[in-house]
Amino acid sequence: MNSKISSAPKKTAKLAEVDPLTLSTVWHSLQRICREMRRLIERTSQSYLISELKDISVGIWDGEGNTIAIPVGLPVQFVGAKYSVRYIMDQYGKDIHPGDVFLANDPYKGYSCHPSDWGFFRPIFHGDRLVFWTLARAHVEDTGAAYPGAYFSNPYDIHSEGLLVPGVKVIARGEEQQDIMRLIFNNVRLSEGVRSDSYAMIGATTMAENRLHDLIEKYGMGTVDDCVAVMMDRTERAVKACILAMPDGTTYGESATDDDGVDLDIPVTVRCEVTVKGDRLKIDFSKSDKQVKGFVNCSYPTTYSMAVAGAILFMDTALTEYHNEGTMEAIDVIAPEGLVVNANYPAAMGGAPVSMGHNILEAVMMAMSAALPPRAAAGWGRRYGQYIYGINPRTKGLYVFPGYHAEGGAGAVYGFDGYQGSASVGTLGEISRPNTEDCEIKYPWKFISRGFRLDSSGAGKWRGGPGFHWEVENLGDDAGVHTGAGQGETTFSHGCLGGRPTLANNCVIVRENGDKMKAQVHRLHQVHHGDRIVKDTSGGGGVGRPEERDPQAVWDDVYINEMVTLKTAREVYKVAIDTATRQIDWDQTKKLRAA
Fold it and tell me: N or C of the chain: less Cβ packing under 10 Å?
């Protein structure tokens, strides 16, 4: 682990007896408060990325920075947020008071994922005692980087990626630090929208503070402390029991992104070894590539967040609502400094959530699937987003059009096909896909086509969710298209147990005169009025051999779901269908599968 990051304090208090009804009520109240925070931000924020796509995370930590409640959000934004809390506590010491709010987006000083994720942290006191921290973190429209939006893949260093705020007090004892806020908003584009989103997040932390005070008033601080301690202990014991049930040993996983945005067409690879020994799980990234010039580097908290999230996927689903610091007590994440998974300053990190963060999660999923075949989970269709920026002729102002339109579906898991339409493995489905009509109202782009792409799922006994075909036309003036928020043109995510991996993503820009230009990931492209962007993306990977898939399910995919062609049904799944009768030819299918 990075020696600059504070470690967790050891828990020594003796656990008290807690009434089961009180324990359940207090615990689920903490979960509900988090969900209320997120809903408040959705209702009051102004940017499309936050209000509609829900690029938001919230949570509650105790007064020492231990994780209490993280029920909703993007893993990369909040699973490792305890490091941000402890960083602020280390910096400010005793100068933390009721009514304070801190802003952090710096990956090095504040431990954000990347500069576009702004996190507002509020300490919550009971009398003179600091008892909780709460966080609201979201991806803002702009952070003052070299180009509008985010994911600029060819930076000079981290400072090219925008304003860096290292856990600074922006509200002191309830009074806004107006000079600091003016300085911050003066250094971002779309400042009024970013200001509104910031106040939405601050308002959510205020609501959380009020709800927590109500909870303390009803049950007493001692009872709330006891409930939290008991839940952490129960979660730790439950997670350790899950690990103890896994076979001891070491398994391996790896995943690569297409390039780092500077040294083009050279893959960057994350490698992990997952070791189970007794009731402990170690995830070791020591064999990963060294840090690179481009924007795909990660800080340790980012790697930690994605690694822990990947491990949780393979634990008892009954624990889904209960993960907290107790979970993390059982998991060790090793990522030596100087690697792409724990880069040293001033390495750029704008692409950390997607172009390496997703790969970290994929590598852990691959290794865990090898360790637990009955819970095998294939990789999802690679994120294939873009940020389009330009002047909106309707408003005469700058717009930034974020993209979660064309990512493929979820990978299959043992026993089940992958979800259709899930956006992005790194969000674990928390991000929503944009509404077509709403996008056409907000941005000068016309949707020509949007639908599932035929034969795009990774084949298997259980297939992945399908990819997309997506086509839009520029009704505005010249615009920039940055493809940093994508990968998967030359690298792929895994299938399991003989299932096929994900397919290649592909994007072209079609000029108004019909000329076509390939729009590769991690690059900046220009489009003009009348140009079209056309994407074909991969679905998720498969689990199990395709020729073992239920022939009736293959027939359904051909004629009901319209996801598989007759050719793929025959050549990949070994299912023969009589086109005249639309019936399965069982004798021919048996011969194909026997061969």
Answer: C
Q: How many domains are there within the chain?
A: 3
User: Does residue 580 share a domain with residue 536?
Assistant: no
Q: Which two tokens stand for residue 204?
A: 């959510």
Q: Quick one: 455 and 576 in the same domain? A: no
Give the C-alpha separation, 7 to 5, whole Å: 6
Share of the chain above pLDDT 70, in %: 97
Bridge partners, 172 (sequence order): 175
Q: Are 272 and 256 in contact (CB under 8 A)?
A: no
- Is 564 in the same domain as 472? no
In a domain, 471, yes or no: yes
Please, is 319 exposed, middle or buried when counting C-beta atoms within 10 Å of its C-beta (0-12, 13-18, 19+)? middle
The helix/strand/coil state of 451 is strand
Residue-number span of the structural domain to which 184 is assigned: 20-236
Residue 301 placed within a domain: no
Mean per-residue pLDDT for 452-470?
96
| CA atoms of 505 and 486, how far apart (whole Å) | 9
pLDDT of residue 9: 54
Q: How confident is the model at residue 3 (pLDDT cuts 50, 70, 90)?
A: very low
**Residue spans of alpha helices (H) in 93-249:** 178-186, 191-219, 221-244
- pLDDT single digits (tens) 330-370: 999 999 999 999 999 999 999 999 989 999 999 999 999 99
Calculate the average pLDDT of the chain.
95
Statement to judge: residues 478 and 535 lie in one domain: yes
